[in-house]
Amino acid sequence: MGAARIAKPSHGSNLSCYISDVYAKMLLNPSYKYWLLVLGAPVNLIVLLYYGLHRKNDIYHALMNETRSELLEAGYLTQLLEETQEQLLRKQQFFKQHVSAERTERQAKHIAEAKFKETLFEETNRKLQSGGQQRLSYAATFAKLIENPVFLLLSILPGLLMYLLIGLYSNPYVKYVFERLIMSLFVILGVSVLVFTILYLSPMNPAANILGETATEEQIANFNRIYGLDQSYLSQLWSNIKGIASFDLGKSFSGNEQVTATIARKFPITFTLTVISLLLSMLIAIPVGIISATRRNSLWDYTFMFIALIGLSIPSFWQGLIFILNFSIKLHWLPATYNPQDWLSIIMPTIVLGTGLSASVARMTRSSTLEVIHEDYILTAKAKGLSKRQVLLRHAVRNAMIPIITVIGLQFGGMLGGSAVTEKVFNISGLGSYIVDKQFIPDIPSIMGGVVYTAITISLINVIIDILYAFLDPRIRTRMKQY
Amino acid sequence: MIQTNLKTSGGYSKAALQRVKRHRTTEYTLAVHTLLTGLLVLAVSALNLFKPYVSDTFLPAMSVLLVISLFHAIALLLVLKFVRRNKRIAPRMAAIAGLLILTSATGNLFALLLGIQLLRRIRGQENPTSAKWEDIWESLTRNVAAMTGLSFIIFLFSISVCSLFTFDYSMATENNYSAILQHPSLAYPLGTDNFGRCLFSRIIFGARTSLIVGLISTAIPVVVGGILGAVSGYYGRRTDNIIMRLLDILYAIPGILLAIAIIAAFGANTVNLILALSIGSIPTYARTMRANVLLVSTYEYVDAARAFGSGDAKIIFKHIVPNSLAPMIVKATLTIGAAVISTSSLSFLGLGVEPHIPEWGNILKLGSTYLETNSYLAIYPGLAIIALVLSFNFLGDGLRDALDPKLS
């Protein structure tokens, strides 16, 4: 977009001009340059060939030589040399350094030459510009070639990937989303490698744990062969990464079940639980935070923030136990263990899981709203004569929500992980308690799958939040266009 | 919090408060807390008198504690009489300060803080950093909630040290089948568990583990993450990119799941637990530090240091890091609480501290099986955890207000 606006006057169709502009810009970006050259290798080779042939009779070199002789004739170099030498001597005098004359001269010559080159370069460019000419660079070669419709048409098939990349790069939104996705792909890959490496380095022996102490060495070797544990680190890693990508991690060590099928069965339970408690806690925490911020230092504020601090300090398993003790054992209101058929049984787990999040979101909302309230645009909104309510809801809260959503996104990950404890307390057969149950063996594919798929979910959710931001927050939008 | 409440409610209490405040120097507050913490330790230790038997070192240790508390009372009176705001303190007080620092061997860190504070005042440092330090101390000691939190933490630390002499470890670990599942009484203030072990002693000994694990598993990521963040923020560009992208990977795994994976691989014991918790929180600290370093690096004094020809290492560790520590300290204090919760949660799942060590999570795990009949076994250790975590949160909030008013 931006590229098109600053496009230099050039002939040929609009499209080719546009493409060559983006192409030139991409060449300046080190990581994109590499991919651009690799993806469009056939096209780039032809351009390179053309460039190599025409480089010699380029006007730039002739112009440069001309300028050089002009400058030398004017005695510019000797003048520079003298100046530099004097400067160096003065500097040495000031710092009371003693440097041999020969060394000073060498230094001066070095500096003077660098300066001369700089001037030469500037001068040549100035001449080129005043003559309305362009230096024949690689990018310019490409631009010149692509102006030719025949070349463009012929290059579409071999350079399809390259043109796709160019199209991607030219739109800041698409580029941002693309970069964000690539990054999370990298993170997911990294997570898989990290978790596998941790489990690979384990000194535990799953075979001995499963087969029992009486297992013979032959049985253990057989077990290791079946599950591929006798292979090298790299081949195991590769098969695991492949397994994660294709949703097929093989069978678990114990229980003889498909790991991914089990995870697919257990994951929705954890996810539902987390989402419900996330919504519940947002529903409570955000209004609480706003009330606290608008009535700062009031009794409400102190009470709410004290409760929030206690909420942050309660270990969830203890809270769960106390809930069970009071509401199930003593009062018989709610069932103590989770049962998918009974909606009453989901109340306690969601409250327990959501307590920590509510507390931190309420605190975050309060501080974020307080920060926003003192901004100039709030003053403007008040000066416009908007009612207090409108100022608060339309201007303050809307802006304060930005950091809050980030916190919620980050906390969501913590909740997915932290649900392991809550699930254990309420006897819910979700992913968290599955991982905990499997860790005693340790059942490598199950733990690997559980942890990595949770991390993938978290990464994806954070990507979605980031992308939503990019579209909702005008500040991010402008920053996106700038780079 | 109470204090600020008072401030808003009515003129009379405000005036009264002002009168008290005028006399209340930082030293006075510290001296009061020193005495109170000492007395609390003494009182809690004295509960052992109701036990069938006490440890051999009980009587000498108690008399030493009593003498120390008397000395602390004298120190409080001296501080009240001789220490005035904005006045230099007579060098005679140096002896008192020295003795106070010696008495902090009981774990009463307030005595240490008071001693150092007195020595600083006696020396009369007047450079600007010291003045800033003074301000921070003053606003922290005026914050009642923060001081309450700090008191409880120091009390737990002190009782962890003193319990070596005043409590009998066998009460907490050895089975006593004649006193199984007894309800709270004077001999067993919080009752006994299914092996007849005194729950009160177990919680006191558990404080040690919880504090140590919480502190170490916060200190390690602060140092490692801090260094990584500082390097990545200072050098920028490629270094920054590589370090932060690698830390992003760690950041994507929820802390508890990473800890479970590490413990699954290397076994459940205290060292692995500390490592597992530490590794998971490195990225947060690195991010905080990096953001600060990015900000501080743009200040003039960094340019000045560079113009003087200081090396990169010197600039980072002498000029940038000390000036970007404040948010790190606040964050660390606030996350020690989270580390304590994680420790006990993992112990509760059977993935943390070895089951035979009395640790709060372990005690709770045991107690949770007797929820219906002997619910106190699960309630009291949980209350201990909440009190400790709440104290760290109070302290962290207070530190944040004191160090950086902007952050609150």
From TrEMBL, chain A:
Alphabetic keyword roster: Cell membrane, Membrane, Transmembrane, Transmembrane helix, Transport
InterPro entries linked to this entry: BPD_transp_1_N, MetI-like, MetI-like_sf
Domain ABC transmembrane type-1: 267-469
Keyword Ligase: no
Claim: Repressor is one of the keywords in the record: no
Ranges that cross the membrane: 34-53, 150-169, 181-201, 269-290, 302-323, 343-362, 396-416, 451-472
CDD domains on file: TM_PBP2 (cd06261)
Entry's localization field: Cell membrane
Membrane topology: Multi-pass membrane protein
Domain of life: Bacteria
Family to which the UniProt record says this protein belongs: Belongs to the binding-protein-dependent transport system permease family.
The protein's name: Membrane protein
Lineage, top ranks: Bacteria, Bacillati, Bacillota, Bacilli, Bacillales
Automatic annotation (TrEMBL), chain B:
Domain of life: Bacteria
Matches recorded under InterPro entries: BP-dependent_transpt_permease, MetI-like, MetI-like_sf, OppC_N
Membrane topology qualifier: Multi-pass membrane protein
Subcellular location: Cell membrane
Claim: Transmembrane is one of the keywords in the record: yes
Bilayer-spanning residue ranges: 28-50, 62-83, 95-119, 144-167, 211-235, 255-280, 373-396
Domain ABC transmembrane type-1: 207-396
Family: Belongs to the binding-protein-dependent transport system permease family.
Record's protein name: Peptide ABC transporter permease
Provenance organism: Paenibacillus aceti
Lineage, top ranks: Bacteria, Bacillati, Bacillota, Bacilli, Bacillales
